[in-house]
Amino acid sequence: MKITIKQAKDYVGQVVTIGCWLDNKRSSGKIAFLQLRDGSGFMQGVVVKAEVSEEMFDLAKHITQETSLYVTGEIREDSRSKFGFEMGVQSVEVIAEAKDYPITPKEHGTEFLMDNRHLWLRSKRQHAIMKVRNELIRATYEFFNDNGFTKVDPPILTGSAPEGTTELFHTKYFDEDAFLSQSGQLYMEAAAMALGRVFSFGPTFRAEKSKTRRHLIEFWMIEPEMAFVQHAESLEIQEQYVSYIIQSALKNCELELDTLGRDTSKLELVTGEFPRITYDEAIELLHKLDFDDIQWGDDFGSPHETAIANHFDKPVFITEYPTAIKSFYMQPKPGRPEVVLCADLIAPEGYGEIIGGSERIHDADLMLERVKEHGLDPEAYSWYLDITKYGDVPHAGFGLGLERLVAYVTGVEHVRETIPFPRLLNRIYP
């Protein structure tokens, strides 16, 4: 019977076959220990010289790293292993021999590993990160499907830009100008007027020449939009969503988080209501922390966000930013138009902003005014302005950057490890 490594727990005491690759091996003369991987997990295969033919034991001792195999043997419990099971190997069949595999069990430089990203993904650490990423995606769909949201797919090629065109990739769309999407938000607002509560999940692109550990050129966004929802309720939904998917990762990725050495006690605190601090209060706090360079009206950089987040043991909302530094579509605060009803969710441990959201303007005259103030062409945005003209309602939404969340949950330092094939400044290979 052919099974996967993940299924091994269900076949204790049975002889099975696993299609796999050799991750690593060691030998003590009379026993060969094969570290096997099949994509579903990692498991040790033990080949005892006295229990197999001389030819089979010699083959086991000389298999090269990343050779593909069919390995047959008995599944048994192994209390010494964090996985909990191993195989007593009876036979090994080589499918394809790998020679001179470039990523050996030694230290390699970052550039070398990035040049070989297509192979680096096979390592135990990268495998664990991708499994956590997958669980966060799975739990995302589960959360929104269970809470009455409809999945909508906005276009990647657009003729306009939610944030302006300064950081967009330009292309030609036959004889027209087009851009790679930096956000599906405007389309999701239109969809919310048709379907009530919607969410999208897809790639977005920012032509931002940044080399920080938090930035990618191409990344994936989850973008919900909700009709008849205002700022306060949106914050509640955000904290419910983030709590849900992080707790799902803790429950379903225990082995992977252990592999990564993640201190999960900090993630266990991410539940319930998140702390909230206004922009005004954040400025006061930063001044107390000797950040004299920051003044009211300035946007926060990474050091400012980290200093604020260090005061809390779970993600913190910074709310009500100045209108002048936020996007044109954000609803002003009643009685105080110099700030908007928005919030950034800042993760602890230096991981920075993982969500940006706001209540959206639902007044036709104000929306047109803001479009003009930001130097945008009303004609190009005429379809979006139609939302405010034909039965608009209070509505709110947010965007979560998946790679930053994966970095936070896994504890990895740089987002380049949180996406299968990262696109970075000066890197589009492989």
From TrEMBL:
One cellular component term from this protein's GO annotations in UniProt: cytoplasm
Pfam families: tRNA-synt_2 (PF00152), tRNA_anti-codon (PF01336)
Biological processes per GO annotation: asparaginyl-tRNA aminoacylation
Record's catalysed reaction(s): tRNA(Asn) + L-asparagine + ATP = L-asparaginyl-tRNA(Asn) + AMP + diphosphate + H(+)
Keywords: Aminoacyl-tRNA synthetase, ATP-binding, Cytoplasm, Ligase, Nucleotide-binding, Protein biosynthesis
Record-annotated Aminoacyl-transfer RNA synthetases class-II family profile domain positions: 130-430
Entry coiled-coil feature ranges: none
EC number assigned by the record: 6.1.1.22
Molecular-function GO terms, alphabetical: asparagine-tRNA ligase activity; ATP binding; catalytic activity, acting on a protein; nucleic acid binding; transferase activity
Localisation: Cytoplasm
NCBIfam families the record matches: asnS, PRK03932.1, PRK05159.1
Complex and partners: Homodimer.
Alphabetized HAMAP family for the sequence: Asn_tRNA_synth
Record-stated family: Belongs to the class-II aminoacyl-tRNA synthetase family.
Protein name: Asparagine--tRNA ligase
